[in-house]
Fold these 2 entries.
Entry 1:
Amino acid sequence: MLKTEERLEYGQLLDEFLLGCKTDQRIGMEFERIPVSIYGKNVVPYEGEYGVCELLREFAKVDNWDYILDGDEIIGLKKLHDTITLEPGCQFELSLEPEKYIKDLKSKIESIDSALAPILDDFDIKLLGVGVSPKTTYKNIKLIPKKRYHLMAKYLWGILSDVMMRETAGIQVGIDFKSEVDAMKKFRLANLMMPFATAMFANSKIRGGVDTGYKSFRALAWLNTDNERCGFALDFNKNMCFK
């Protein structure tokens, strides 16, 4: 591990990508949902007797998960290679151990959801699989007490960065690569496919209780979060490589 005063050399960065090459190809997934009250459909806060922190605390006791802490604050749970973490606005994220087949990831989600269901019922909470909070906007969603998120909120400069952090949810996939050539092929293909995937699975037109006029307000939020970090990679060429 590097000490803070050590210089990070270019070769060390390159090595990280090369070490990622795997012969056993698997796929990983992060699955985010928005916790809302079953009554008012408002986003459930972190604090409070029936808040998301207490939900995590209760689930940890029932299903034998360990706490993930930021200082003294519970910001998630872990069991073996699976984690449940909170995004900035309390979005509920399952991060699953990579599997060879997508059907195995699906089975893992269903198993965790089954164990979680009685506690969600007790807390009158529903996890919505939508791209943006349909009723509560970021002005009424507090950041959870995770230090990195508060630093991010100050750093990201896009006009919809607060929307992205506090209101949106999605599914991210991690796809193994066996070589540098394989990685570049998959990276290029993933970027070319993403506009179509965004359109096919768009489900975030309702925000703040009104029709925004967009099929995917989540996509709009990401495109207005930080141009240095977000958007599609379009400048492909035959010599593209890890460097």
Entry 2:
Amino acid sequence: MGVRTIPIIILIGMIVYFYTVLLRVDRYFKLNLSKMVLIFILLLILLPAINIFGIWFLTLLHLFEIGIVIDILNFILKRTELKYWNFLYGSFLLPIVLTVLLFCYGYYNINNIKRVEYNLGTDKNIREKGYKVGFISDMHFENALNSKRLSELIKRLKEENFDILLLGGDIVDEGSTLRGIQEIFNLLGSVNTKKGIYYVYGNHDMSRYRKTPNYTIKDLKNSIVENNIKILDDSSVEVDNDLVIIGRKDKSLRNRVNSEKLVEQIELNKYLILLDHQPVELEKNSKLGYNLQISGHTHNGQIFPFNLIIKKLNLAELIYGHRKIDNFDVVVSSGASGWGYPLRTAGQSEYVVINILGKEG
């Protein structure tokens, strides 16, 4: 099953389900509406949901999900005499109330950026005190993350005193303005680090999914490099005598260099960090001498039940968290915000702290 077919299947399910809901409400309130009127109301409800990236689709999706659960519960409880249950079920009020509450949680959740920390050991001969690496991705600035919350996050990042800060792509997207990209990279560039700030492009940064972008690729690049952030675009940088960062073009680009080529000229006795927006080729990369791959992109699903669908259909090699493959570590972040919808009903918004510890660390 392709990714594009999933929303179509969901929309078909909604058509059938919401028609049964209209029949139920009609019976409960004894409205005696004709089938043609019910179909007309159904079209009014569902036609705006054709835009699957709109808030109305998201609203109906959650009413659909919660409503099915309520239907199952009603099947179990229909022989009982619970007070007010018939009203809550027949009027469809319960799914509406629960959806409102879930959206309130989703708004809070996307704006409540958490700190996640991993301690990773290595047998490589790195400096005794190791490295404190910060990672942040998928900020999608100006979707849910606004200037005030961005400033608060930057303050927290500054207090971390990172050795290295890695930016994993989709920091901005199609909805970002030119002023917005200048603002966010100016603030990110102000984060104090001992060894620098490094950046890879995501699939949204270049605004390739919009016919008339708000900014050019040149605008984007200038906003990044003018703030002393180094772009790694299928290239590498030796941060210290014992550590190398390799940054990849996004998987969506055809001219992306393969990971074997990227590691050819690098000394494998050094600790190698692979920065790739999308968590792909994990098994392959584990055999090439890389020590750590850090990615974002997945948002850990962001919207329920897409997190479960991604896992069930294996649409991501790792949707979230830490995985170890022999001597190779993979860390996938759910991102600092969300794309499309200003809500998060699955996963959490976060920035990541990775402590790389040597033999004596």
